[in-house]
Design brief:
Length: 194
Amino acid sequence: MDTRPFRVGFVTGATPDKWARVWRQRYPRTPLELVPVTQADQERGLREGSLDMALVRLPVNREGLHCIPLYDEVPVVVAGLEHLVAAADEVTLDDLADEQLVLPHESGWTPSAEQLDWPDMDLKDAVEVVASGTGILLVPMSVARLHQRKDVVYRPVTDLPTTKVGLAWLVDNDDDRVQTFIGIVRGRTERSSR
């Protein structure tokens, strides 16, 4: 197998650790580099060639890309600990209709005209704003867990569609390591064939 580093990007909230662990056990002479990427930049590394594969949050532009959907993510609302959301097990969009939505640039949401007034912020800053009691944040559960703090809560939003995480790579990338990584993600053993 090729000994150049095999670079796999992963979008905020995705967890490639279990697959990376299997790769490193099976192919210790082929370095695997995990590269964090934002949702806004998740395709760029693939298309520019700095990444061999990436765990992406769908949808992505499939032109020139292969993509295997892997799993769904539950959408949640993140709110300050004193917010009414904290008293519920789950909420609907109607429950949140009068709330101010905090919109970080990494959220993947398209802002409405009134939301454009928010300063540019990342997810960490957005959680800080929400923790202060100003507004709510809508993100996949994996992102909420990543930014979990003692002064915020998160609850499922039952009528928002789930988001999906997939494994993407360039159609023209015929590197054997791509197929090897796909096999690991799909749970193939060392002795199984495609």
